[in-house]
Design a protein that fits this description.
The protein has 171 residues and is α+β, with helices and mostly antiparallel strands. It has a single domain, classed as Cyclic Phosphodiesterase, Chain: A (Alpha-Beta Complex). It is built from four helices and eight strands. The longest helix is centred in the first third of the chain and has 14 residues. It is globular and about 45 Å long.
Amino acid sequence: MNYGVALFPSKPLQDLANSYRMRYDPHYTLIPPHVTLKEPFELEEQELPSVVKRVREIAKGVDPFPLEVYKVDTFYPVSNTLFFKIREHSALTELYEQLHTSPFKRNEKYSFVPHLTIGQNLSYDELSDNLGRLKMKQIQHEEIVDRIQLLYQLDNGSWTVYETFKLGKEE
């Protein structure tokens, strides 16, 4: 089964992202707006308890942190994807790095660019038109992230939360 690790932003930020995703993201119905921390990976059922334990340890080792969205950007020419760019933060980078150490495999395909996808698989014209329009808008949002989620993929391709992990030491 496929698993992944992500963080889900607050409802106001999800609503803002979804206002674009419903038009520009074919994965809109498969998963809510999120920041991918660990791309999909396969696990056998017997491996799950040790992975859950490791994600819990990682989460406990990172304190809650600010998530700041500050502009719209694209991965063009690598892919025709539109996203809300998230300002880098050491805790966010630490989560990503820790989720790419043993027992997890390293992501060799892309470097980590914190973002929230709002459109993908767009034609060049769609990308250009929307990027130009969205860059004129002031996109500014900040919130505190205090949890991450381990997700699993259902047979229909959608993703659902397996377990939520609070960040930082429990009091």
